[in-house]
């Protein structure tokens, strides 16, 4: 209960009174990242997943996930990360779009980064698709920025060098609600909160020495993901349009270059990176 004012805390206490498995933690508002940090610190389970408040998990898919995890534990095995499909639920349009990983990941068995296949551009492991081993999140010292939107990107980036074993279950587990005007991912809100997007982007640059990673498949994946983040931040700074935002965009790229010239070159020299830095109207 992250400082709610709508009676959610009292409702949670009522549910906890009926079910001993439910434990309620009340805290002053710390935003999305702060609430997840508290969840990670206090979680008792072997694995952890974070559904957002307006999303849901498919019941039948969830049962298959639990059966699979229990079989792994029963067989003396464990995985650092389980991946499942997620579904864009465009409720107002009554449409669905399933995002799966069939072309990128081997299914129904434990695998490592060496066995990962091809992630096409724009196809990534997102918060909606991951279940982490709780201990791994603690071991990688994940501490999400408080009072900040868009920390989902950190959640599926910083822990990856610690992930050694994975399991892909081809079920449509996470249902991602799309359609509210006040959602954080609308264009208007992305522009309004561009400072938070930039903060997350800079955190991702600093949290991991990507070019030092020994596994080249993991390294390539993380470079591609950071490239998309640099692109998204740049696009919304450009769309905001003020001279200050344009300067922030240029400084973001300059700071990446100062931080790691090789990483900068990898990201800047691809099509997305070059297009974000054209000086003309085309840019």
How many H/I helical runs? Answer: 11
Radius of gyration: 20 Å
Estimate percent helicity: 40-55%
| Total strands | 7
The secondary-structure element order is HHEEHEEEEHHEHHHHHH
Mean pLDDT: 93
Q: Beta fraction of the residues?
A: 5-15%
Which outline best applies? globular
| Uncertain stretches | none
The biggest sheet amounts to: 7 strands, mixed
N- to C-terminal distance? 44 Å
- Quickly give the structural class: alpha+beta
Describe this structure in words.
The protein is α+β, with helices and mostly antiparallel strands. The protein is 44% helix and 13% strand. The protein has 11 helices and 7 strands. The protein has helices spanning 8-18, 31-42, 59-74, 134-139, 152-155, 187-192, 194-207, 216-240, 243-259, 261-268, 271-276, and strands at residues 47-48, 56-57, 81-90, 95-99, 110-111, 130-133, 166-178. Strands 1, 2, 3, 4, 5, 6 and 7 form a 7-stranded mixed beta sheet that branches. Helix 8 (216-240) crosses helix 10. It is globular. The N and C termini lie far apart (44 Å). 27% of the residues are buried. The model has no long low-confidence stretch (mean pLDDT 93).
């Amino acid at each position: 209960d992250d400082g709610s004012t709508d009676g959610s805390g009292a409702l949670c206490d009522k549910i906890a009174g009926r079910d001993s498995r439910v434990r309620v933690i009340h805290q002053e508002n710390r935003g999305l990242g702060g609430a997840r940090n508290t969840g990670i610190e206090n979680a008792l389970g072997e694995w952890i997943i974070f559904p957002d408040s307006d999303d849901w998990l498919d019941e039948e898919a969830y049962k298959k996930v639990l059966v699979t995890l229990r079989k792994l534990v029963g067989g003396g095995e464990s995985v650092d990360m389980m991946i499942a499909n997620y579904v864009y639920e465009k409720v107002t349009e009554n449409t669905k779009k399933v995002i799966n990983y069939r072309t990128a990941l081997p299914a129904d068995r434990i695998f490592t980064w060496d066995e990962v296949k091809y992630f096409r551009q724009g196809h990534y492991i997102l918060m909606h698709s991951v279940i982490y081993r709780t201990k791994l999140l603690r071991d990688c010292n994940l501490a999400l920025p408080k009072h900040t939107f868009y920390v989902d990107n950190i959640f599926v980036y910083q822990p990856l060098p610690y992930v050694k074993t994975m399991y892909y279950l081809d079920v449509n587990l996470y249902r991602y609600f799309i359609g509210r005007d006040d959602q954080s991912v609308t264009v208007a809100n992305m522009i309004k909160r561009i400072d938070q997007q930039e903060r997350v982007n800079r955190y991702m640059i600093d949290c991991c020495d990507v070019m030092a990673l020994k596994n080249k498949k993991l390294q390539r994946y993380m470079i591609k993901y950071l490239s998309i983040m640099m692109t998204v931040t740049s696009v919304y700074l450009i769309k905001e349009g003020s001279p200050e935002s344009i300067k922030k965009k240029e400084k973001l790229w300059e700071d990446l270059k100062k931080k790691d010239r090789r990483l900068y070159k990898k990201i800047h020299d691809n099509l997305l990176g070059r297009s974000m830095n054209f000086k003309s109207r085309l840019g």
